[in-house]
Structure formats: C-alpha cells, structure tokens
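Project outcomes to date are best conveyed with an example. Our students and postdoctoral researchers have been running inverse folding experiments weekly, and each run begins with a structure described purely in tokens. The record below, which covers 152 residues, was selected by the lab manager from last quarter's runs and is presented without edits.
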C-alpha cells in the first residue's frame, strides 16, 4: 500500500475498493448517483444505496475516486500504438478536445509495427475526469493500450 503526505500534512493511501468497508463504497455509490443525475438529491441517493445521511456526510470529504486525485496535476500517459500516419494526431486531438494541456511528447522508433509513446499533460482544465479521457483515448483506432504511468 502506498502513502503520500501532502503539503498540508495530510496522509493519503491508495487502497483497492474491494478491501474497504462497505460504508466507503456506498459513499462512492452515492457520489456516482448524484454526479450522473440518476439521483436528484442526497436523500434519494442514500436511500437507493442503503446508507444513512449521517454516514454519507461523515465520510464524503474523506474518500475520492482515484481519477479525481489527478485533477490539477501533471499526468504521464503511456501508449502502445500501431505505426500508421495520423495516429499521434488522433491522440493529440482527443487530448485537446478534453482540454488537457500537453507538456511533452516522446515516441520511440516503431518495432514490429508498434511504437511506445509517452505524453505528459496538465489536468487542471479537463472537461471531464481522467477516467473518461483514458476511455476515449483507448477507443482511438490504432491505440493498443493506454495507461497512466505517473502523477505529480
């Protein structure tokens, strides 16, 4: 388990969801219902997931999905792409559409028709969360894999 102490002295851990007590996963379920519009109020959302309002309010500020920790940060994405004209342009267009600020791009020489590409971006202006951006990037024709290598 990795931990990080932030500038404000808070210590954070990255923990697999299936290892958390139910209350935390239910709080996240409430947040998803609210953000997706599938519940119009906190009362409705907590009722749907079987959580008390007091438990929701107690834990709501203490648990975030991993992708939310990437907002306003530097993220390095690693791609394995097929070697054909326009593949990098498609990735850059997707990043631009999401309003990610591209800082660096590095591409290795293709071997056996595949190339590795690393792109570092700032995520503070993203229109959506990093999880959706990663899904969009993974759907680009010729992108074999896309993963997050690092977050600063």
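After processing, the design step wrote out the following sequence:
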């Amino acid at each position: 388990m990795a931990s990080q102490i932030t500038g404000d002295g808070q210590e954070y851990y990255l923990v697999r969801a299936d290892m958390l007590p139910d209350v935390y996963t239910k709080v996240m379920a409430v947040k998803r219902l609210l953000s997706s519009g599938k519940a119009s109020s906190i009362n409705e959302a907590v009722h749907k997931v079987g959580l008390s309002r007091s438990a929701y309010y107690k834990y709501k500020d203490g648990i975030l999905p991993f992708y939310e920790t990437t907002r306003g940060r530097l993220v390095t994405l690693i791609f394995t792409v097929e070697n054909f004209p326009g593949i990098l342009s498609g990735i850059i267009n997707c990043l631009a559409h999401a309003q990610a600020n591209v800082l660096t791009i590095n591409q290795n020489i293709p071997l056996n028709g595949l190339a590795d590409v690393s792109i570092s971006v700032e995520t503070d202006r993203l229109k959506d969360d990093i999880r959706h951006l990663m899904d969009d990037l993974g759907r680009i024709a010729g992108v074999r894999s896309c993963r997050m290598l690092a977050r600063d």
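The two ends are 18 Å apart (CA to CA). The chain has a mean pLDDT of 85. The training component of this project remains on track.
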